[in-house]
Amino acid sequence: MNKVCDVIAPDIRHTLPDTFDVRTVRRDFPILQQGIRGRRLVYLDSAATSQKPQVVVDAVQRFYMEDCANIHRGVHSLSQRATEQYEQARVKVQHFLHAGESREIVFVRGATEGINLVAQSYGRKHLQAGDEIIISTMEHHSNIVPWQMLCEEKDVVLRVVPINDKGELLIDEYEKLLGPRTRFVSIVHVSNALGTINPLREIIELAHRWNVPVLVDGAQGVPHLNVDVCELDCDFYVFSGHKLYGPTGVGVLYGKARLLEAMPPYQGGGDMISSVTFEKTTYKGLPHKFEAGTPNIAGAIGLGAAIDYLCGIGRERIAAYEQELLTYATEAVSAIPGLRIIGTAQTKASVLSFVLDGVHPHDIGTILDEEGIAIRAGHHCAMPLMQRFGVPGTARASLAFYNTKREIDALVSALHKVKEIFG
Amino acid sequence: MSNLRELYQEVILDHNKSPCNFRKLDGANRVAEGLNPLCGDRVTIYLHVQDDVIQDIGFQGSGCAISKAAASVMTDIVKGKSKAEAQALSESFRRLVTGRGSAGADCSELEEFDAFRGVCEFPARVKCATLAWHTLREALETTTGAVATE
Prior knowledge:
Distance between the termini of chain A: 50 Å
Largest sheet of chain A: 7 strands, mixed
Mean pLDDT of chain B: 88
Oligomer: heterodimer
Strand order of the largest sheet of chain B: 3-2-1-4
Number of domains of chain B: 1
Radius of gyration of chain B: 14 Å
Largest interface: A-B, 20 and 23 residues
Strand order of the largest sheet of chain A: 4-10-9-8-7-5-6
Shape of chain A: globular
Radius of gyration of chain A: 22 Å
Number of strands of chain B: 4
CATH topology of chain B: Sufe protein. Chain: A
Strand content of chain B: 15-25%
Mean pLDDT of chain A: 94
Largest sheet of chain B: 4 strands, mixed
Helix content of chain B: 40-55%
Number of helices of chain B: 6
Structural class of chain A: alpha/beta
CATH architecture of the largest domain in chain A: 3-Layer(aba) Sandwich
């Protein structure tokens, strides 16, 4: 059990049985109780967005019904309550990531905005023509495009770490790319399209030998893995609330205080200033310097509730159950003739990408939907990765701790139907 | 399952497996590329247009069964048609797959279009069916270009 659980949710934890019971867990998710096209919904698209437990929905609703006010502004009671809850959520995230200080936690709209913030604020300040940024072949577009935009503006060069056929980073090649021109490394924790878990400790340590800071795109990391930013020694870590069973429109940028302090603001506006005159404006300190305008207050509070919920169940229990599901699903779909799994790394999170001979992923998606099964079909916002594997896209079943082996059986049986239709 | 059978009719599955005119056209004087950024479908239409008539047509690309079959059927139908006729066909196809009425009584290609009648039950797939037609219109307007359905 990690530190945050002891701090935040001891009462919830003690009411739960020692073993993980998926039936109990499923009752916490109202959306899973519904039918789709006359069948029970089988939701296997949690990597796109995860479903929200009742406690998250309640937290958001309670804010709007009882505590809604703007933060850091009013002297009145509601504003104080709203501010307190918003700042409490920040502390929850701090403990969740094992960050040293709560001012190292910046609320943003999502992982995408977190990366853009660093690219625009850190990148524009510190990078010059001829400098190099390293990313990898398995990045989501959100960890490619912000750097390309910076490269175009500053004449910086983007270098890409290749992968092997299993979907694992070639660390030797990465080591060769690192050099005196390298100024930044931005790397995904867990690949959204392959499920690969990258060896962050090694990646970060190698970069630090060159005094190069590392940003970790943790959008798919935090839902599956316990993250300790101090132990990893990463310089930035970003994630989205909605993939962590929280609301959409809220996310987190963790940054080492030393780095964040030296960075200029990303956006200007209210709440990020100490004083404004037409001659000169002074900015607030961390983290408010990076939170211009009224933030997603309800979203942050909902994210805090999601973190409490996950810690209440136990992150290790969740991880163990998801691994069990992944093993079961991998074996089950591998037995289907003509099916090829894309992404077979040694260490994987519960993401199962595959292609089926002679059937385009979209057709798989449509046929599965008729069976009430939700999967993602397409390029998963990772077009360069699809090119690497020579496929236009894949079908992807992403598994969360509320999924069951019976649902995987339903997936397999629906995939047989796909084959039947396509002959 | 019946909805699915309606969508994935034999005609569509056959065209998907062995598409007509699936080739790059040497000597094309009109080319356009169509993209569906939502799902990554892409199609390139090659035309040889002379005296306002589509003398020859070919297509290449990758996509789902619906998009591929639609492109294949389209290339078969519009060959030998004038620009105006092709545009009218495009419009009646669009009406059919969006569920806004039949393909039109005056349309002799009705039988070929009929295979796509099931698409309107799957709103998410309408763009797959119309991608090739959008791209054809683009190709008729210009000598090169890219069109997106989003």
